[in-house]
Design a protein that fits this description.
With about 475 residues, the chain is α/β, with parallel strands linked by helices. Helices cover about 45% and strands about 10% of the residues. It has three domains: about 10-75, no CATH class; about 95-325, 3-Layer(aba) Sandwich (Aspartate Aminotransferase, domain 2); about 330-455, Aspartate Aminotransferase, domain 1. α1 packs across α4, α6 packs parallel to α12 (about 315-325) and α7 (about 145-155) crosses α8 (about 170-180). The two termini are about 40 Å apart. Bound molecules: pyridoxal-5'-phosphate.
Length: about 475
């Protein structure tokens, strides 16, 4: 038996006869207090893992996973084997290389004209992106978070107001509501789409509710018609958080054209990403667009005439020029993402993991491909060992974030979001990745699951 790097079989053999004092002694010498301690912290329990096993608190398969993981973490990461197929989560270097000449030309244009602040490229990009979203107005800002906040402010939403959003989103959705001065009110998500559960929406409305902020999470649109119908009946504003959904469609219509206004992020790894931060509010409402225009630029309508309080949230002209170039490629890039998603779907069908599903009315932009696996952390670790990067979006739902403890939510309030947090795993997916890389990821997952199935049963996560 190797003393420093136990295999699953080593540990299993050892644990088969756990009642014997000898095997406990051997287990301790194999794992060591340090490894056991790490595993324990991961298990979040107070007792030694051995005792937890004996008490039946952890299963043999969980224990094996924890131990192997703890050992692996204690060891230095091995260098990639020669010829091994590495799969990054996204590959912005490859993306840039594919359009470098166009980007260089766009940057030179801005530099040549020294047109840096709210220049012509910002104006053109606003028009082009609004048209892409099938809406009328676009106002470029410095991030998706600012876009969400300024969209709320443009509709007069602020202190004393409540805004309803999904418990499973990136924290910026809720932070934007708080920055506007309002209170985020959370609703659980629909397990089929991971977007706000429309059945629970009305129950969250109070006399203070002013807006609903559905999130088109992972690029999949929220079910907008019932949301808009509730909003119409209750006199509420609907601001789409479309930060992950450039080019997605709901019943044939583009996200961004569905609510009173929508916010997009151009964070570099988004489907349409800048070479830095950026965002945009799009809207069919000229007054809302004009209000955002003022708010992003010191509250001024004319230079040095400030109608309202406002800050500096402008979109950088260089970023706008770069984004104009990338917008020309977006449809093709999104099509590549859909093709990759289809390949995952095909190759992972029948595996004991839950795959993302598109609702009948949805065309996802596949910003992320988030599967659900009962033993997510071990799967992620095995993929990492093979040079495959993954992500978790998101490990802690908004209501359980420390920053929001004053909202008064508790564990158990949003069971679907909480369940997702423990199971979701985003697989590599980006236009620059090859189908060979995607196939390799699927194959590696299949191999891992086959190995797991050959031993203890693995629950298929409930949809
Ligand atoms: C759903 C969602 N909302 C808001 C944001 C905030 O966008 P940004 O990072 O550009 O501020 C993001 C970005 O990651 C997001 O994914």
């Amino acid at each position: 038996m190797r003393a420093l790097d136990p295999t699953i079989r080593d540990i299993k053999e050892l644990l088969e006869d756990l009642d014997s004092a000898e095997s406990i002694r051997r287990y301790r010498s194999l794992v060591g207090d340090n490894g056991g301690g790490q595993a324990l912290r991961r298990g979040g329990e107070e007792a030694h893992l051995n005792e937890l096993l004996l008490m039946g608190i952890v299963s043999l398969s969980q224990m094996v996973d924890l131990l192997v993981e703890a050992r692996r973490e204690a060891l230095p990461t091995p260098p990639p084997a020669a010829g091994r197929l590495e799969v990054p989560f996204v590959d912005l270097v490859a993306q840039h290389a594919s359009i470098a000449a166009e980007i260089d030309e766009a940057i030179s244009r801005v530099m040549r004209d020294a047109d840096f602040i709210l220049g012509r490229e910002v104006d053109l990009f606003e028009r082009e992106f609004a048209a892409f979203c099938q809406t009328d107005y676009g106002v470029g800002v410095d991030s998706g978070t600012s876009a969400l906040e300024l969209a709320l402010r443009a509709f007069g939403i602020g202190r004393g107001d409540e805004v309803i959003t999904a418990a499973n989103s990136f924290i910026a959705t809720a932070f934007a509501i708080s920055s506007a001065g309002a209170r985020p009110v959370l609703v659980d998500v629909d397990p089929r789409t991971s977007t706000i559960d429309v059945e629970r929406l009305e129950g969250a409305i109070s006399p203070r509710t002013r807006a609903i902020m559905p999130v088109h999470l992972y690029g999949h649109p929220a079910d907008m018609d019932p949301i808009l119908e509730i909003a119409r009946r209750r006199g509420l504003v609907v601001i789409e958080d479309a930060c992950q959904a450039h080019g997605a469609r709901y019943k044939g219509r583009r996200t961004g054209s569905l609510g009173h206004a929508a916010a997009f992020s151009f964070y570099p790894s988004k489907n349409l990403g800048a070479c830095g931060d950026g965002g945009m509010v799009v809207s069919g409402d000229p007054e809302a667009a004009e209000a955002v225009r003022r708010l992003r630029n010191y509250g001024q309508r004319r230079k040095y005439h400030h109608d309202t309080l406002g800050f500096n949230h402008r979109l950088d002209t260089l970023q706008a020029a770069i984004l104009r170039v990338k917008l020309r490629h977006l449809e093709v890039w999104n099509a590549a993402r859909c093709q990759q998603a289809a390949l995952y779907g095909e190759r992972l069908a029948g595996c004991p993991v839950a795959l993302p599903q598109e609702a009948d009315w949805a065309q996802s932009a596949y910003h992320l491909y988030a599967i659900r696996a009962a033993d997510r952390d071990t799967l992620a670790a095995r993929l990492r060992d093979r040079g495959i990067a993954t992500g978790i979006h998101y490990p802690v739902p908004i209501h359980l974030q420390q920053a929001y403890r004053d909202l008064g939510y508790r564990q158990g309030d949003f069971p679907v979001s909480e369940g997702l947090a423990g199971q979701i795993l985003s697989l590599p997916l980006a236009a620059e990745l090859t189908l060979e890389q995607i196939g390799h990821v699927a194959e590696s997952i299949g191999e891992f699951l086959a190995l797991r199935n050959a031993t203890p049963p693995v629950a298929r996560p409930a949809l």
